Each structure stands twice: as C-alpha cells, then as structure tokens.
User: Which sequence fits this backbone?
C-alpha cells in the first residue's frame, strides 16, 4: 500500500499578507520545474487574512496539478450565522483551501476545544468535500504517567465518531506530542512510528482495514531538515506537520527535498 506523503506547514499566527505571499512564492518557485509525481503533497496553512494573497499565486504550472494545497488553521462546523470571530468551511473553500487543520493542541489548550467540537468540525469539513487534518497528542505528564496510547486512542475515536469509513480513508491525522511542539525536542522516530502504528490500528478497528491502509498519519513536533529523513524512513509515518521550520523558505524547501530523497529509495 503506497500512501502519498504530505509535508504541511502550519504558519500559525505569523506574518502579514505581503510576507506570507513572498514565502509562498519562494516555496512555489523552487518546485516549479519538479513533477508533482515525485513530490510529497505540500500543504500550507497561512493565517485567515493571508489566504487570498496566498491562493492568488497558488498554481500556474498549467498542468492542472496541485503541488501546493492550502489549508485553514481552524474552522467552525456551522456554515454561517451569529458566530462572531469564526470562519466556516465554505468560507475557507472560497478562499482556496482544500484542507483544514483541526484539534491542534494550541486550540485545545488556549481555546478550550473539546473532542466533541473537533468531531463536529471533521464532519462539516468532509461534508463540504475538504479534508480534515486532525491533530492529537499527549502532554509530557501524560507520557510520564504511561497513558499516551489510551489518551490518543480516545482522541482519535472521539474525532472519528460517526464518520463513514470512506471519509475516514481520505482524512489525515497528525500525531503531535505536545512536549515536542515548538520546543526543539523531537520525539524519537521509532517511538513516533510506534504511536502512529497504534493510531492506525485504532482506525482499523473503527473504519476497517482499507481505511487504515489509506489514511495518512503525519508526525509533528520540532520537525527540521535534519530530522525528516529518519522520520520518513519509518513504516507508518506518512509525512510531517511543521510549525517553526515552515516559516523560512530554505528550511521548508529542505524538508520537502529530504522527504523526496526517502520517497525515491
Ligand atoms: C505545530 O505547531 O504543529 C508544530 C509541530 O510546531 P513545531 O514544528 O514548531 O514544533
């Protein structure tokens, strides 16, 4: 079973639209001559206010490919209405998004997002034809008390509750140990692979073997150009969700390049 790898950059609350557009152009131009078939699927999640600027320069390679897709960093599950400060999936699609990150630990921690909300968001995203990137991960305290697997399997079961196997197969999960996000501490690649294989076994129980073989499960947490090749060489890691290292054109392009080295071997 071969799954197309994904390298996704989460720009979080960084950059005004002119800088976001320049960074996007720097990534796009670097890969303009490269065939999409040898590349991972690249996804960029800018701030909401930069979505239009970025999508206006998205793909002009003329071949109809979508080497660089755009993601929202969050969404509301309703289509419209009195939800001040929120953004709907339709609005993200209108601004050029085909993916939406949901359940990032920063949203869970600072904005009190619950598993139930994440499940509603996932259903809304899939019903509009976009793809959710569902984040999960444990704190250091949870890891040290030995509950990593049960915690993460609970997050995944809740996020996928009531979603069809077909839709689960198209979805993306990002395993992001919270203690590794923005800290410079990367999870050992074998351990990340073990947890991701465990997540895949949960998907198998929930949605069957075909969905568990198709779903892409990424690792996130201080991914750098120097770490990606080892991470990508593991059996169950299908790519990376990258925060800090996605904010510099050279480091993000190097992560893509090092991923491709593993893909051809
Ligand atoms: C993230 O925010 O999803 C992330 C993984 O950040 P960083 O790469 O900076 O650890």
Assistant:
């Amino acid at each position: 079973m071969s799954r197309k790898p994904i390298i996704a950059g989460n720009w979080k609350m960084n950059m005004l639209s002119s800088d976001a557009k320049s960074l996007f152009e720097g990534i796009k131009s670097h890969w303009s001559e490269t065939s999409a078939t040898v590349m991972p699927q690249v996804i960029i999640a800018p701030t909401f206010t930069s979505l239009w600027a970025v999508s206006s320069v998205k793909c002009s390679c003329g071949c109809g490919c979508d080497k660089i897709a755009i993601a929202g960093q969050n969404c509301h599950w309703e289509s419209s209405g009195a939800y001040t400060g929120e953004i709907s999936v339709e609005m993200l699609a209108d601004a050029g998004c085909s993916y939406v990150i949901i359940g990032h630990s920063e949203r869970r921690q600072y904005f009190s997002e619950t598993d139930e909300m994440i499940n509603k968001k996932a259903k809304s995203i899939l019903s509009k034809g976009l793809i959710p990137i569902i984040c999960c991960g444990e704190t250091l305290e949870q890891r040290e008390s030995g509950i990593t697997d049960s915690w993460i399997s609970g997050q995944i079961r809740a996020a996928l509750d009531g979603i069809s196997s077909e839709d689960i197969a198209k979805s993306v999960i990002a395993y992001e140990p919270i203690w590794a996000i923005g800290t410079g501490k990367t999870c050992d690649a074998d351990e990340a692979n073990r947890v991701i294989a465990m997540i895949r076994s949960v998907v198998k129980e929930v949605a069957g073997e075909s969905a568990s073989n198709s779903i892409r499960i990424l690792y996130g947490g201080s991914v750098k150009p120097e770490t990606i090749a080892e991470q990508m060489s593991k059996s169950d890691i299908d790519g990376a969700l990258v925060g800090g290292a996605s904010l510099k054109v050279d480091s993000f392009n190097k992560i893509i390049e090092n991923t491709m080295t593993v893909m051809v071997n």
User: Anything to note?
Assistant: The pocket of phosphoenolpyruvate is lined by residues 10, 176, 181-182, 220-223, 241-245 (CB under 6 Å). The longest strand covers residues 97-102. The radius of gyration is 17 Å.
